[in-house]
Amino acid sequence: MTADAGTRDDTGGRPVVPSTGRLRPLGLREVRITGGFWGHRQTVNATATLEHNLSWERRVGWIDNFAAVVEGRAGRDRRGREFSDSDVYKLIEAMAWEVARTGDASAAASIDELSKVIERAQEPDGYLNTAFGHPGQGERYSDLEWGHELYCYGHLIQAGVALLRGGVDSPLADVALRAADHVCATFGPGGNQGFCGHPVIEMALVELYRVTGERRYLDQAKLFVDRRGHGTLADIEFGRAYFQDEVPVREADAFHGHAVRALYLAAGAVDVAVETGDDELLAAIERQWEATVARRTYVTGGMGSRHMDEAFGEDYFLPPDRAYSETCAAVASVQLSWRLLLATGDVRYADLAERTLYNVVATSPADDGRSFFYVNTLHRRHVGPLPAADREHPRAESAVRAPWFDVSCCPNNLARTFASLAAYLVTADDDGLQVHQYADAVVSTRLADGRPAGFEMRTAYPSDGTVVLRVTETSPAPWTLSVRVPAWAADGAVLVEPSGARRPVGPGVASVTAAFAVGDEVRLELPLHPRWVRADPRVDAVRGAVAAEHGPLVLCVESVDLPAGRDVDAVRVDPAAPLTPDGDGAVLAVGALASDVDRDWPYAADGRDAAATPARIRLVPYHSWASRGPSTMRVWLPVLE
Amino acid sequence: MTADAGTRDDTGGRPVVPSTGRLRPLGLREVRITGGFWGHRQTVNATATLEHNLSWERRVGWIDNFAAVVEGRAGRDRRGREFSDSDVYKLIEAMAWEVARTGDASAAASIDELSKVIERAQEPDGYLNTAFGHPGQGERYSDLEWGHELYCYGHLIQAGVALLRGGVDSPLADVALRAADHVCATFGPGGNQGFCGHPVIEMALVELYRVTGERRYLDQAKLFVDRRGHGTLADIEFGRAYFQDEVPVREADAFHGHAVRALYLAAGAVDVAVETGDDELLAAIERQWEATVARRTYVTGGMGSRHMDEAFGEDYFLPPDRAYSETCAAVASVQLSWRLLLATGDVRYADLAERTLYNVVATSPADDGRSFFYVNTLHRRHVGPLPAADREHPRAESAVRAPWFDVSCCPNNLARTFASLAAYLVTADDDGLQVHQYADAVVSTRLADGRPAGFEMRTAYPSDGTVVLRVTETSPAPWTLSVRVPAWAADGAVLVEPSGARRPVGPGVASVTAAFAVGDEVRLELPLHPRWVRADPRVDAVRGAVAAEHGPLVLCVESVDLPAGRDVDAVRVDPAAPLTPDGDGAVLAVGALASDVDRDWPYAADGRDAAATPARIRLVPYHSWASRGPSTMRVWLPVLE
After folding, report:
1. Might you name a Gene Ontology BP term for this protein (chains A, B) (predicted)?
2. Coil, strand, or helix at residue A404?
3. Is a pLDDT exceeding 50 seen at residue B1?
4. Where are the domains of chain B?
5. Interface test with A, best of B393, B532, B540, B546 (most A CBs within 10 A)
6. What whole-number distance in Å separates Cα of residue A12 and Cα of residue A566?
7. ipTM of the complex in this document
8. Nearest-by-CA chain A residue for B596
9. What class, spelled out in words, does domain B5-424 have in CATH?
């Protein structure tokens, strides 16, 4: 089929639009971030990251690859990893959301140019990939384990969906539809019974079904989800668990294998479950999410604790110093949490999204939006080699953000997340509106019965715990304004009603139902004092250590705040002593610096350090680490013995 | 040159024969193990492992590769990894020591057969490798980073040296000499300025110099050591530190990069230092050894804490659950310790060798000598997939020993170590004999002045702490009989002199100088009670946990000793309560089993487990783990809070 205006979304565009579910998402015309913590990041993304990513994709040849296909020189000239097409698509998706959000002319022009280059590379039957299927290259679909062809379509289709929903005119939407039709024709019930080593096409196809109403896209997504887990793909060095092909999706106990793959697959499974009414599948993903959060998630919300295969570790295997916690896994986790929140209305999913956004997604980019962490370790012992400004960087080996990577999914995943972030803040249901994330923003929508409803949200969060919701649009009948109270705010949160009445509220949802007048204010006051947390005692890697949190932020210590020559590994803290503010979001802890004398043999009856010297230890928000130059860093701090 | 009878070694053969040094090694005719812990392993090695390894090398095609070269079909038919030749050579070395030790006719026949097959594959100019240099293969030396050609020569030369020193007649000795001459001609001062990504040829060439007196072999070894560390090899994904090419050998702070490579290189550097009088180089390796032992060594003596690149981790990075602790790294560590002991006489090197032998080398093989651990983790959370008996196994993913691996250096490295183990027990100096490792053994040699000296060593060690040295050969003038007192025996060791006088002795060396008579006994009594140790507080991964030791043995808990359905991760112990013997080398600790209830979110103000139930915890020798069927296991046990 061909995309037409009827597929456009008058909400301004939403990444995920389930046809059913407990909550309804709002679009970029309905929720706009106006400033603050996230507004700053949206601006940096729009003014720096989009252009930065585009210029790197040109420089490393990923865009020329499409022209190389057209000109018959792909077998010789193609550059980059086999999945580099997907990053061009992810960047177009980011630009599409940016155009939808602000009408950005430069992004629109880039979409136009890129779309034309890509369109020419598509084969008449819809096949589109620069790494396979041309002279001097491998056959189409000859390497489903590693070839990433269907993965690339997934990102192409997501870009197409963003263009359609965002009302951005581009031939790429039709390219995406042709590719989707080609996939259905090739991998349908009577076709190739394989699927991609890297999931993402599942959720892309469901969203395309939601945009177009074409059932075959949903059916194909369901086929891909159901085919997985029966040992169809080859048994690679990392084992089939790497790409979740060793156990069917609905039978797994927890997310496992390559973290980004696992989370994209789970998100696609939720989409399929919601659209097909498969409650068993939805419950399976919820159960896996619970187990993963309880046993396989870092205090930052980060996921993935194995470098070798970028994978989830075993239960309670969460070494801070080998945390992989890939930026893309955090993006995928937020996407999954959002789907589960919409389906169930359970704000525990928004709790995890908040933690992940503030402590992984916000950690990855530098303040200027032109360099990034690919992995988000919780402990860096050595500064390591510094990334060169002028070349691609390996993924996991520096204490300094790098401008680009040989695998550069993260910068583009961040770009599309920041550009569309407003769509993840607020939802609607039959009774009113629900605030899930706090930000300076304006909200303007209609309730299920068509009545207008809107409010302005003002907050200095996360620096301050007060969030004010001021009603800007309403109607005579009552409706409900709800706000999430984070699980970390278990003690002392207060909801102030328009009447001025103060009501203690616990974690979960706090609501006011009223016949609101314009100007009415609902205020949430969160108790924002720094606190220590300890891990479940089964987390071996941080036994005897504590981490500090401040509101939604995880804190860390950096070597730049220590006496010269001392390193973060010398830090010991006394969690019985109070944490005190030290300005600019920093906090002071009472502790000590350990001695640095070697033992001949490091194992002995007495493990204590008798020569530690008392010290005040400065802690800063984890997301800001490495912004003051190369530094070592750690989140989990050993308790002074 | 050609090997002749003049190169034979009338000691019965020794792996390492420095021309100078504080101590002199003894050969397989001078020290014979007669039973006990190590005698049993030597017998299993001789009667099972040698044949097992040979049959697997036939089965997986590594031996046929040599015929494939001769028959011009190597480009098409060659099987196995690029370094598989080296494993055939290591097995021949093991068989050579076995023939030297016992005259084993079957091993001699196998050497004969293999040598003929290999000899035919050598090119006229001495080049010999089945993976390069033939039609359909890469050019000779076109991939020094990964090609392993010089590494294979290293093992070929070590096999040749073993044949020459062991007095085993084989054409392979000449093959090795021709290969060494080819290496000197190709990589000498005016030739190819490269070196091998995997060290080992350095120590092989020095030993060949020691056998033949040909100085050019030593010079070539020195060239290889000196060339390293200047960024000559390509910058691979793991970085040049992987193969120690980022910093010159003498400038490094500690052993780093791939552990086996690092340790083989250090051993070769010691050999070069000793033969060239390069005290600075020797001191550098000693300093690196000290730093590595203090900061980068597991309580088992195991080395290597990174799976991804089989490498040493950063200082104090010693996660028990991701311990790589490759069997071959332990063999290499013992080889290095032995060289440093001979050079310096410092028994701390023998201390580490003992720990490594009992807790890594003895751990790897199954009791029947037909399956092996490639990695020797200190914590196994899940049993994982069980290795199939009939195919090669990946290296690091099971709680059960596997019969063979795609990379099978470990089974062959064990075989050559066990076959030659007697040569690592006792040394001589101008004043007498020194016992470094305890075993049932007979020793018969001559002192530096030619006087006969010998003794019988009897012990049930490590089950019992008494070691009796009964003089069997002596002469009228006094000489000195010394015995190492391990560092772990700091409290209560006693030396009983022939007179019956009892003398408390501390860690280090205990000696008796006397005009011994045949039948005189020197007795060492070591205090063999189980004990808890804690790690240096900088070892993050085992903070708040203790490990139990018993004599030289590290202990562990296995799930087979826990109530049904409970896992080793539930174990908590009280190190203030006494450890009590429980028969068969097992020990009982006082502790508890933790509750197994998940938290919604695993990080909270209180990290304690209020629902743990008291329990007695059974600990067994780590080297014996997984011998009672699949089990989970851990060495470091969390302290009950």
Report:
1. carbohydrate metabolic process
2. coil
3. no
4. 5-424, 426-525, 531-638
5. B540
6. 52
7. 0.91
8. A538
9. mainly alpha
